[in-house]
Amino acid sequence: MRELLPRAGEVDLFAAYAQADPGLRVNFVSSADGAAALDGRSDGLSGPADKLVFRVLRALADVIVVGAGTARIEGYGAVRLPAEHRDWRGAHGMPPAPPLAVVSRSLALDPASPMFTEADVRPLVLTGPDAPTPARQALAEVADLITGGSAAEWRALLAERGLTRILCEGGPRLFGSLLAEDLVDELCLTLSPVLARQEAPGIAEQPGGDGPVRLGLVHVLEDDGYLFLRYTVGRD
User: Fold this and answer.
1) Cα–Cα dist 79/166, whole Å
2) What is the pLDDT of residue 207?
């Protein structure tokens, strides 16, 4: 992998994606024609370099947040980091792996899913005050439930646990809701050298949004035709 901008040359991914301050980072892969999935899943757009960046972003995070629908569609399991990434976290005063936090207001989640039962770190479920009690009780056996009326409340409650570097892995509806609450600090976007040529959502669903959001380019990396774009999200 090489850096194209702001400087041409080889790249250290941990340095390239380091976060100096707490923040909420969103990571997506997209086809060249704007699709966030191929045949319903993002894996068809990915490749070895994208998966490497995916793992590095996880290693840098305090917590990984994902929408329940995306977790089901993508077949999420327990978070597993390579040994060298666990070692890197240990050397930087971080626990071996970040917890997975699943966003679900309905709590239509299976407590027997491997993302709960096989996790090395107890997972979290971010839900609302109206979530059904039976589902709460079932999920409380395998996860810590965090209740908030908005994404901003969830973020504050995560911060109380010391989880301030947040990596959101989608999906588009969750990304749209985070943008609507002005909570996103960074977008890490992999541009896949593929034309999907099929109906598929883009990376953000925000019906009735308040207009365009300005992005500031931090870097451009390249590997095997994939472009890795890191942006700051403007608040003008």
Assistant:
1) 15
2) 62
